[in-house]
Write a structure and sequence with these properties.
With about 425 residues, the chain is mostly helical. Helices cover about 75% and strands about 0% of the residues. The chain contains 19 helices and no strands.
């Protein structure tokens, strides 16, 4: 005797579980885990799971994402610190399970995909408003803190890097929706929200989100130049990409103070001068440490990458406080630390495979999404944290289904447990 779920009901439950995951991202780690498990149950527990497994292992794009899990997983054999190895593997487990879940032939309706996008935009908007409310509560204090590498509070437990990336991705998502929508009213509302997100990125002044936004604008300029040949838009966006930072310097004191601090911090880093509490200085040192680990261990050190990195700090920066020591602040270097040059090559291959995955609709936005994700990993370790793993795997695979080939994914399973 089993529990049968028909095609329509199952599709609705999958849709609701995806909405719940997005809500949980901004509200509760525990609820995020619960909603993720629910999503896996709905997408993987059915009679034709073996067919779904075959679809997973025969799709290079899905296998590429799972490689980001298997690379550190395989390093158990040469890892001494098994506790740290378990930590890395546990955090990266969704990089295996999400592709498996999305490999199923289930497909949501265009309306449901749009509602997932609307939910994403709504929570990024509410989160941005919450940050601005915190900012305006004590605006002068925050302006002073921006001269000391401290930013305004953000959702995701004050994770400025990943929340700013979410805002940049929300801008890309919003432009995609505006392109697809024929309603003038919704396009106008979208334009207002677009201006808000751009302004917020400059107030927050977290570099990952800001640079991702400007990369997107640059991509749009190149796209319009090569494809549409719409000269007025090319000129307008070219003026924007140059003039917007200048305007932000005069309009937003937080942006101005952030640039002043970055200039000061980088000047110390160029002189190899360690200053406690620095931001760029610590990151540059962490990159040097990660590069040293790769040079000393060309086949990697597995889960011991943290210990080896800290050993470099102790030998080369003895005055550095223990709490200021960072992992190598770059995912390519982290994977090089796990598995050496082979790990670095496999990580690069996993990133590149997504660009060759054919999607039916709006390839430009698919390319942009993956380019911004890959960029975010160059100087950040998003795949070493729960939020970062979820943001990468969920959003990329959501867009893959959304922009993919509906005619090949229309079949759903009736399943019993």
């Amino acid at each position: 005797m089993g529990i049968s779920i028909d095609k329509a009901s199952r599709k609705e439950f999958i849709f609701l579980s995806m909405i719940l995951m997005l809500v949980s991202l901004f509200t509760s780690r525990f609820l995020l885990s619960v909603s993720f498990i629910l999503f896996l149950f709905l997408t993987c527990f059915h009679k034709e799971f073996l067919e779904q497994l075959h679809s997973f292992i025969t799709n290079p794009f899905l296998v590429g994402i799972s490689l980001l899990f298997f690379i550190p997983f395989a390093t158990w054999f040469w890892t001494e610190d098994k506790t740290m190895w378990v930590r890395f593997v546990r955090i990266k487990l969704p990089l295996l399970l999400f592709p498996l879940a999305f490999a199923g032939k289930w497909q949501l309706s265009p309306r449901q995909w749009r509602w997932i996008a609307y939910t994403f935009l709504a929570f990024v908007f509410v989160g941005s408003c919450w940050s601005l409310w915190q900012y305006f509560q004590n605006i002068h204090l925050f302006h002073e803190q921006y001269l000391k590498a401290k930013l305004i509070p953000t959702p995701l437990e004050n994770d400025h890097v990943r929340f700013s990336l979410l805002v940049a991705l929300a801008i890309v998502c919003l432009v995609l929706l505006m392109k697809q929508d024929v309603s003038k009213t919704r396009r106008l509302l979208g334009a207002i929200l677009l201006v808000f997100f751009i302004a917020f990125l400059h107030v927050l002044s977290a570099r990952t989100g800001l640079i991702a936004f400007y990369i997107f604008v640059l991509f749009v300029i190149v796209y319009l130049t090569l494809k549409s040949k719409q000269l007025k838009w090319v000129i307008g966006l070219s003026i924007l990409i140059v003039g917007l930072p200048v305007a932000a310097w005069f309009l937003f004191p937080s942006f101005q103070n952030r640039l002043r601090y970055n200039r000061y911090d980088l000047s110390n880093a160029k002189e190899n001068k360690y200053v406690p509490g620095s931001n760029d200085g610590k990151r540059i040192l962490s990159l040097k440490a990660g590069w040293n680990v790769l040079q000393q261990h060309p086949f990697g050190v597995g889960g011991d990458v943290v210990d080896k990195t800290y050993e470099w700090y102790d030998a080369n920066v003895p005055a550095m406080n223990e709490e200021e020591k960072l992992f190598p602040s770059s995912e390519p270097l982290m994977y090089a630390g796990f598995a050496g040059w082979i790990g670095l090559l496999l990580f690069t291959a996993a990133m590149l495979l997504s660009f060759f995955e054919p999607v039916k609709n709006d390839y430009f936005f698919w390319f942009t999404l993956n380019a911004l994700m890959a960029f975010s990993f160059l100087f950040d370790i998003g795949l070493e944290a729960q939020f970062g793993v979820f943001i990468y795997a969920f959003i990329v695979l959501w867009w893959w289904k959304w922009l993919g080939r509906p005619e090949t994914n229309i079949r759903s399973y009736n399943f019993s447990i």
